[in-house]
Amino acid sequence: MSGATIQTLIGMGAYLLVMISVGLWYARRSNSNPEQYFLGSRGLGPWVAAMSAEASDMSGWLLMGLPGVAYFTGMGEAFWTAFGLWVGTLINWQIVAKRLRTYSQVADNAITLPDFFSKRFHEKRKILSTVAAIMILVFFSIYAGSQFVTFGKLFTYVFGAADYFVVMVILGAILVMLYTLLGGFLAESTCDFVQGIMMFIALILVLVTGFVAAGGFGEIGENLRNFPRFTDIFGIATPTMRADGLQHLSAGKPVFGPGADYSFLSILSCLAWGLGYFGMPQVLLRFMAIKSTSKIRESRIVAVTWCLISLFAAVAIGMIGRAYLPDLLRTASDAENIFLHMANRFFPPLLAGLVLSGILAASMSSSDSYMLIASSALANDLFKGVFNKKASEATVMWAARITILLVTVFGVAVALSGNQSIFRIVSYAWAGLGACFGPLILFSLFWKRTTHSAAVAGMLTGGILVVLWKEVISKLGGAFAVYELLPAFILSSIVIFVVSLVTEKPSAEIEKEFDKAKVAEF
Q1: Alpha carbon 406 to chain centroid distance?
Q2: What is the pLDDT of residues 224-247, one digit of tens each?
Q3: I need a surface site. Which of 90, 163, 336, 338 has the fewest CB within 10 A?
Q4: 140 in helix, strand or coil?
Q5: Rounded distance, CA 494 to CA 500, Å?
């Protein structure tokens, strides 16, 4: 192992020690009861709520997946995806945050998303919370796997050997599992706050240094003009691929086809990413946990600003990377390493280690959220809510810890399954959660007439259609190739609306609670 590699690892190790220390610091506070462990007793300040929501949401996808898309096929898909995500962030904070914060407390102090759905509709047989908990377990386990892929790619790059991929996937998963087990929601949210800052700094440093190294606007533009439709937001570059799956090179330069129009349907698919925000438990939980409704406006400004700058930087890094290192990365999966290569070239080893910790931060801030939310779904909503309603708080806490272990194991299996494209794994899980919960959140918060039967039907419709569309319908091509989140979200909304109209309206007690949540302040 070279001296440079050792210095890089020292920089990354220093960051990891800080995160472990945070978990130990919060271990006693967070283990007192389930509400403290899963929701931090609704005590998040505005900056922690905002930064932890965005950091846990964006994940390693922001520093690897999104720049990789921009590097490989140009501006089109990356730009519209980023734009859809930013608009979704803005609308979610603007209309959902306050209502969910108040309603979750009015609804008998719900502390998880399945718990909120169950209490919102006053269900006795726990059908809704059971379905919600199962959906969370399935899709968050897939999501966690995408973050473990990030660990593997990062350390494989640092060590310079593919043999380390499996080892680092497992070690990274164990590390996140340990500090999540120790500190719960408060440790996770505080770590995510720090990690959000790390991600932001890393993106800005690589963007600025890459821009200078690549020669500024003039030279970057000149280089990218050699690749047809690469800078066109209404087009997409088409790398010419060899039989072995690598992009063709000619005289040391990457070969592209003539490019293609980025169709209205493709743009709509990218914009549909923004719909996912309405159903993302890791974001919605921050809305529920913020200290008071008066802090939401400040949180919204911080979150939306962070999101805008970070998404712009991620897309720009991919574009600059192609101009600066045009022939380096020749598959879509390898292209996701562009941030790593740029950080390593521009900074001395020790500083590079700290910059690369931004990727660790992104992955850890998401995977810890996924583990904790999945554990709350099984321990609080399934184990206690359905199978053992008299379970003690200590028993629930142990069930949560066992679930975290199981999710870790399943996530590692996903990471090692052979699909190493972070962008594609994330897109599947994002669609699943967005279609399951997004329409139901909006109807639950803003339409009094929504019924319990409609809620169950809408959730099942969204989750099942995502899988069917992805695995079967999309293969028909044409209009059916649209991102599965869009049709699943629309059909789920239609089902909720129609079933609500044809079933008995909610009780007077539920309607009274709905009206109270509209005006409540906490």
Answers
A1: 20
A2: 999 999 999 999 999 999 988 899
A3: 163
A4: helix
A5: 10
